[in-house]
Design goal:
Layout lengths: L1 E17 L5 E21 L4 E5 L11 H13 L5 E7 L10 H16 L6 H9 L5 H6 L2 E6 L3 E4 L11 E5 L7 H9 L3 H7 L3 H9 L3 H6 L2 E2 H5 L3 H12 L4 E4 L6 E5 L2 H12 L5 E5 L5 E5 L1
Parallel strand pairs: 1-8, 3-4
Antiparallel strand pairs: 1-2, 1-12, 2-4, 2-5, 5-6, 7-10, 7-11, 9-10
Helix pairs in contact: 1-2
């Protein structure tokens, strides 16, 4: 089975506090986008899980999130001795805040559910995915959702892809990266009074989505990580997107990809051309209504 594992962006991202278990509680409106990795999953009788990726930056051993996802599915399903071969053609940039690894893990779980004839519902698949990574539950179903807790508590929202004026989405990934630990540390160490002024208005974003109000969605994009960190390249990309007609622009995840929402395809294409002169990893895409798209069996 071949699956398109879609990336995600965070229309809003708020960190509410550190938990006793070391994780953080968050509130984020997540959106699938049609920039994807191709994941091919093939059952066999080897009794082994093997992973092959197109990227030299990724390891093909038990540390790969796709390997962990397959193991979690087999364990939860009671499938002892089942073998599987997983091949991943990477297109989603890594360390970009777009859940590329989680998308691959989600695709493996979705494919195995079909190939092994288990027919688990989404809630069961979310439970399996959450044991591997916090973004995997969202990536399994995708679309437009409010994610809370560690990211595993999901509430579907009206789909941005179904808006009558669904936006063109421009993604731009600068070379600079930010470690997830550093991003969370910046939030943890921010003065609470200052942090309260930097938070996104999650409720306003949810209302704008319910009203299918694209300008309202664009107005309310905000990421608390971006607000507490000074990333010059991200600020420069946002200025260019805004100057070229983006209704709204924001960093996604813990960075450093910046997305822009455009209601004019020609403006989005012109902005992409300008950005590619400095930032080659620039992509034009659109909102997707699913996290995983099956292309063949």
């Amino acid at each position: 089975m071949k699956i398109r594992a879609n990336a995600k962006i965070n229309l809003t991202l708020d960190i509410l506090g550190r938990r006793a278990d070391g994780y953080h509680d968050l509130a984020t409106v997540m959106q699938s986008v049609a920039l994807y990795d191709d994941v091919t999953v093939t059952l066999n009788d080897s009794g082994n899980i093997t992973v092959h990726t197109s990227s030299a930056q990724l390891r093909d051993d038990e540390s790969n999130i796709a390997w962990k996802a397959a193991k979690a599915f087999f364990d939860a399903s009671g499938l002892v001795g089942q073998g599987v071969s997983i091949t991943i053609e990477k297109n989603i940039p890594m360390e970009a805040g777009m859940a590329g690894g989680s998308a691959d893990g989600a695709a493996v779980i979705v494919a195995l559910n079909r190939l092994c004839g288990k027919n688990f519902d989404d809630a069961k698949l979310w439970d399996i995915g959450a044991t591997v990574g916090a973004d995997i539950p969202f990536c399994i179903t995708g679309g437009t959702m409010l994610a809370e807790g560690k990211g595993e508590i999901l509430t579907p929202l009206p789909l941005l892809a179904d808006f009558p004026d669904a936006p063109v989405i421009l993604l731009c990934k600068p070379e600079v990266g930010v470690s997830t630990g550093k991003a969370y540390g910046a939030v943890d160490n921010c003065d609470p009074a200052v942090l309260s002024r930097l938070r996104p208005d999650t409720d306003a974003m949810c209302r704008a989505l319910a009203e299918r109000n694209l300008p309202g969605v664009a107005k309310n994009v905000r990421n608390v990580f971006e607000e507490v960190m000074d990333i010059g390249e991200c600020a420069a990309i946002k200025r260019i997107m805004t100057a070229e007609g983006a209704l709204g622009a924001c960093m996604t995840g813990s960075g450093t990809t910046v997305f822009g929402l455009f209601d004019d395809a020609a403006k989005a294409e012109a902005c992409a051309a300008r950005l590619r002169e400095t930032f080659p990893r620039t992509y034009l895409t659109h909102a997707s209504s699913a996290g995983c798209d099956m292309t063949s069996e």
